[in-house]
Design a protein that fits this description.
heterodimer, A: OB fold (Dihydrolipoamide Acetyltransferase, E2P), five-stranded mixed β-sheet, 2 helices, about 50% strand, B: Four Helix Bundle (Hemerythrin (Met), subunit A), Heat Shock Protein 90
Chain lengths: ~150, ~950
């Protein structure tokens, strides 16, 4: 089901960490990266919504990726960075544990996702990408953020 | 023209310009479309329709006629009866240009010669493209040329320049005969050439506004602009001072400069905000004229009521409201309200009532347009919709009447028997829906045939700036819109216990004779509980069960509740409680807060899609320190808590309202005191006697208290251990006994004191406090009274004995149908009659009563209330009497207050007897006397 989602062109990728997973997003899908300001906790139907922040006068919903992917909670790493992405007509902040790198990938470097990626469901990813010795899971924003998809 | 008219006219011009801004593109798109693009044609159609309507009001005959004939053409296109050709589009473009030019020169518009246009459109309607028509295409070119001239003339900056346009236009329509095909591209070229020049020309600012499709301009009062300039000037001066003080490093200068920046910034902000907010009066005021003119035109007499004209809305919303409201008002006048003769015939006063009402509700602005006219016949709507192929008959059959009436919001739906000048071809409601949707508004309709129609328009507050109260709960801040805030109540530490009561597991605040349920937000929002340390004043974490958890296991266990009160720090004697009382529609409740911050004007920011499912927040705002505070939607919070927190719902409130207005559930109650702070109510009708005894008279008979009385033994009942956790207060050495009858025996209920006897006219709340032994609750003189169920307490005390008492009465197999809408009286009477040995079936209104009667042949007697919804008691009695098989069925009416007139009415309708509700002896007596086995009657 992931085969058509492979990247066809060379892509610059922002690599960040969520729990034990190394995740990537094409730089074209990332609007901004910044250190997390104070997050105002909110009550929503989605437990993975961490809260909202004030980003230069706009209210931005913060999604905790590790909670979204139901990853085991690691006390050591503290989610400190926010990767701001555009989804639909709104901006959503992804709470991540750390920003690692920005790399170029050619279309040959991508291959389909296995059933799970370090405990996380493969639905959240579009493809895997081999960076030197390790693997980077390319985040599927639609499946991760869409409130319709469970 | 007076000032008001001038303003309305100006509004019309602005609206028309805005509409016309997009018409050119739309017409051109029509030309290139394959087949029929309904949306597109509808849009153009509506534009012209709106202009036609407006022009009609201002007696702009030419404009009205031209728009009307263009509309006719578009109507044919819309119905697919006419193919769009280049010629037609060219003609329409030319027409639209003339319309635009007329709108810009309204006062001279009647001098325009539009005969050519009209003949072209007539020709199109007749199906021929006559050569005379082609002249129009030329006109289009000419018109544009003329305007091009004026707009590039540097001198023509004023109205004089505009009027010169008219003069030049007038000679223009010389019937130059050309073939349409050769002219058409030229006209087009002109149009495209003109556009950029016009928009860049300073001489025609109005044109610029019209050209920018969809973009709105704001009209700002000059004095406000001056004020903004002034503030900007001041800001510059202060900045200079600030820079200077930073450069010189003189702290003495820094302080005042910073303060000044602060002051100016907030003034500036306020001034800019105020440019956006306008009162709805701007829209409402134009209807006075419209209603006057239209009612005169149609020979109707109409009173216009305008309420809430000072409700402020964002400029954008106000502008978007003009059109839809005009349509609604016109529809009401044209279709809704009847002529004086018709009204007289249906027994209404000759003057029809039309009401415009704006108000805040649940964080939204609601505008109601209501009339007391003929209402909408769902049957007619249904058949029309089927006829037009909008819905199938099967679909209609599945729809409720309300949903059928809502069909009028569908495009192309017309209910008017004939097309009239006033409210057209039924595009009205479609326009309403679409225009409202543009600003996120929703319209709904409610209509009662013969009574009138109400259309509710709900507008969101997303564009609005709303005054709010900022509160802190735990470490988090919330904003509560001021419109929802009724008041703020501080309960002093020593009052906490007496004013916050847990009755039936629900925390309630006593507030001037009302019982207001309290909601603990932390129960729902997963916020940590905090309590204020009395000594340090700091907020600390509190480890304690959530209210919601506590509620689960407090089945009447009063002792436990009391014990919990003891450990509940928040409500203990050493901390005060702040409560914000809010209103969500008709429902009022309190939100406990830790801190009351300031009131502030907050700017509403939308929340993301993850909040779409949750109704408890209407948005968020950014506070002065940059942190985010969520805006509570008090109605959403109520819904969230509703299930567990309180049984009261909006519909309850509605029934309650209607019951109150009917003023029927009145009864005399005896107020007795059991112990300090514990007061109960007993229906006086059930009380046989009240006696006073000394505690020394008390005897123990078996395990029961009793007293020698009238030569016998009167068994006594104490509320202690039944519904109360407190012992009977007999500190005076005396007590009272309320004597009542169960079966054939008398029972005495002990009370420490008799407080009062009152005539209680309000509804008895049989939900909030209902439990075994307590039939309901009521508030008398600011006190919550629990309404005792005298049979219930007996049953609780000694079930076997009760069974013995009641079972001892003549048990019959007779079934009695009890028709009563008040749940309280229904359950009370049911119990009483059942206690007398009858089988009781119940129905909530006359219709249900009839249904029960049909399905239960064993019913041998009917007891009915008079005032009920859907079908009242007398109507039901008449229906029953009309059926021969029920001719001998005894029918007894029960009321709370009998009057001679009411009684006569009842007897006329066929009622056999009248009885007073809760008069147990009489009620039972009448059942015993009248109920006969059904077989005899059949």
């Amino acid at each position: 089901m992931m085969s058509e989602a492979l990247f066809l062109e060379d892509t610059e990728i922002i690599v960040f960490r969520v729990g034990d997973i190394t995740i990537g997003l094409p730089i074209t899908e990332v609007r901004e990266i910044f250190k997390s300001p104070t997050i105002t906790p909110v009550h929503t139907a989605y437990s993975y919504v961490n809260g909202v922040i004030n980003l230069r006068g706009s209210i931005v919903t913060i999604v905790d990726l590790s909670k979204r992917m139901s990853l085991p909670i690691k006390q050591k790493v503290k989610a400190v960075h926010i990767v701001l992405v555009e989804f639909g007509e709104e901006l959503i902040g992804l709470l991540v544990d750390g920003i690692e790198d920005s790399v170029f990938a050619s279309s040959d470097d991508f291959f389909p996702v296995p059933a799970t990626v370090n405990d996380a469901d493969s639905n959240y990813f579009r493809a895997l990408f081999r960076r030197d010795e390790d693997l980077v899971a390319m985040l599927d924003l639609d499946n991760t953020l869409d409130t319709e998809a469970a | 023209m007076d000032e008001m008219d001038e303003e309305v006219l100006q509004l019309f011009v602005e609206e028309s310009r805005e509409h016309l801004g997009g018409i050119e593109d739309d017409l051109l798109a029509m030309e290139s479309m394959d087949g029929l693009d309904e949306d597109l044609v509808n849009r153009v159609f509506r534009t012209l329709h709106t202009i036609k309507g407006g022009a009609g009001f201002f007696d702009l005959i030419n404009l009205q006629n031209l728009a009307h004939s263009m509309e006719n053409v578009l109507d044919l296109i819309r119905k697919n009866e006419l193919q769009t050709t280049k010629f037609i589009v060219s003609s329409l473009l030319a027409g639209a240009d003339t319309v635009a030019s007329m709108v810009d020169n309204l006062e001279a518009s009647n001098d325009y010669d539009i005969t050519n246009h009209l003949s072209v459109f007539d020709g199109i309607l007749k199906g021929d493209e006559s050569p005379a028509a082609s002249g129009v295409a030329t006109i289009a070119g000419e018109d544009q040329g003329v305007e091009l001239d004026t707009s590039t003339e540097p001198e023509s900056t004023s109205a004089e320049g505009n009027s010169s346009v008219t003069e030049q236009v007038e000679p223009a329509p010389e019937p130059q005969v050309d073939t349409s095909k050769s002219v058409e591209p030229a006209a087009k070229a002109d149009i495209t050439a003109v556009k950029p020049q016009v928009s860049s020309a300073q001489a025609a600012p109005a044109k610029t506004a019209a050209a920018s499709t969809g973009e709105q301009s704001i009209r700002v009062h000059l004095s406000l602009l001056d004020r903004l300039m002034e503030l900007a000037g001041e800001l510059v001066l202060t900045r200079n001072a600030l820079l200077q003080s930073v450069e010189t490093g003189d702290p003495a200068l820094l302080q005042p400069a910073a303060k000044k920046v602060d002051a100016i910034t907030s003034q500036l902000q306020r001034a800019i905000m105020s440019t956006r907010m306008q009162t709805i009066d701007i829209v409402f005021s134009k209807f006075r004229r419209i209603v006057r003119d239209l009612s005169g035109q149609l020979g109707k007499q109409i009173n216009l009521d305008i309420l809430g004209e000072d409700v402020e809305l964002d400029k954008t919303i106000i502008e978007a409201l003009g059109d839809p409201l005009t349509h609604l008002v016109r529809n009401s006048i044209d279709h809704g309200l009847e002529t004086p003769a018709e009204r007289k015939a249906s027994g209404k006063p000759p003057f029809g009532q039309l009401r415009l009402h704006a108000f805040h509700e649940g964080g939204q602005v609601v505008i109601e347009v209501s009339d007391n006219g003929a209402g909408i016949d769902p049957q007619r709507i249904a058949s029309k919709a089927i006829e037009k192929g909008m819905v199938s008959e099967e679909e209609i059959a599945r729809m409720s009447e309300k949903d059928i009436v809502r069909l009028i919001f569908q495009p192309g739906f017309s209910t008017a028997e004939e097309v009239t000048d006033i409210s057209g071809r039924g595009v009205g409601m479609d326009v309403v829906r679409q225009n409202l949707a543009k600003v996120g508004g929703v319209a709904d309709i409610e209509s009662v045939l013969g009574k009138g129609t109400t259309i509710r328009v709900k507008l969101p507050l997303t564009l609005a700036i709303i005054p709010s109260v900022l509160v802190g709960i735990s470490n988090e801040n919330f904003a509560i819109p001021q419109v929802n805030v009724v008041e703020m109540v501080g309960v002093a530490p020593d009052e906490v216990k007496s004013r916050i009561q847990h009755v039936g597991g629900v925390a309630m605040l006593r507030l001037r004779g009302e019982l207001v349920p309290l909601i603990e937000l932390s129960d729902f929002f997963g916020i940590n509980q905090l309590y204020r340390d009395v000594e340090t004043g700091a907020l600390n974490n509190e480890r304690r069960d959530l209210l919601a958890d506590r509620r689960e296991n407090d089945e009447l266990d009063a002792e436990k509740i009391n014990a919990r009160h003891g450990v509940d720090r928040r409500e203990s004697a050493d901390s005060s409680v702040n409560i914000v009382i809010v209103a969500a529609g008709a429902f009022k409740y309190g939100i406990r807060v830790d801190e009351l911050h300031e009131s502030a004007e907050i700017v509403v920011k939308p929340l993301g899609m993850h909040f779409r499912g949750s109704n408890e927040f209407s948005g968020a705002t950014i506070l002065g320190d940059g942190t985010v505070a969520l805006i509570l939607d008090v109605d959403g919070v109520r819904k969230l808590s509703g299930a567990s927190e309180s049984q009261q719902t909006e519909s309850d409130m509605r029934t309650r309202d209607s019951e109150e207005s009917r003023d029927i559930d009145s009864c005399s109650i005896l107020i007795i005191q059991h112990a300090k702070d514990e007061v109960y109510a007993v229906p006086l009708q059930l009380v046989a006697r009240i006696e006073r005894f000394s505690t020394s008279d008390l005897q123990d008979v078996g395990d029961r208290k009793a007293i020698s009385y009238r030569g016998g033994i009167l068994p006594l009942l104490s509320l202690e251990g039944i519904v109360s956790s407190q012992t009977l207060d007999v500190s005076t050495g005396e007590f009272y006994v309320i004597v009542y009858t169960v079966g054939n025996e008398e029972i005495g209920l002990m009370a420490s004191d008799i407080r009062d006897i009152v005539d209680y006219k309000d509804t008895i709340d049989n939900r909030t406090h209902k439990r075994a032994g307590i039939a309901g609750s009521m508030i008398v003189n600011g006190e919550i009274l629990q309404f005792l169920d005298l049979y219930g307490i007996l049953e609780l005390d000694d079930p076997e004995w009760t069974e013995h008492l009641i079972g001892g009465s003549e048990d019959t197999d007779l079934t009695i149908l009890l028709v009563e809408d008040s749940p309280f009286f229904q359950s009370q009477m049911k119990k009483e009659i059942e206690a007398a040995g009858f089988i009781v079936l119940t129905a909530d209104d006359g219709l249900l009563g009839l249904e029960m009667l049909r399905t239960h042949s064993e019913i041998s007697m009917v007891l009915t209330d008079i005032e009920m919804p859907n079908m009242n008691g007398l109507e039901m009695v008449r229906e029953i009497k009309a059926m021969p098989e029920y001719s001998s069925l005894p029918l007894v009416a029960v009321t709370s207050l009998a009057g001679a007139a009411a009684e006569q009415k009842g007897l006329d309708a066929g009622v056999d007897e009248y009885q007073i509700k809760l008069d147990r002896e009489q009620l039972v007596d009448v059942c015993r006397r009248l109920a006969k086995p059904r077989a005899v009657n059949a």
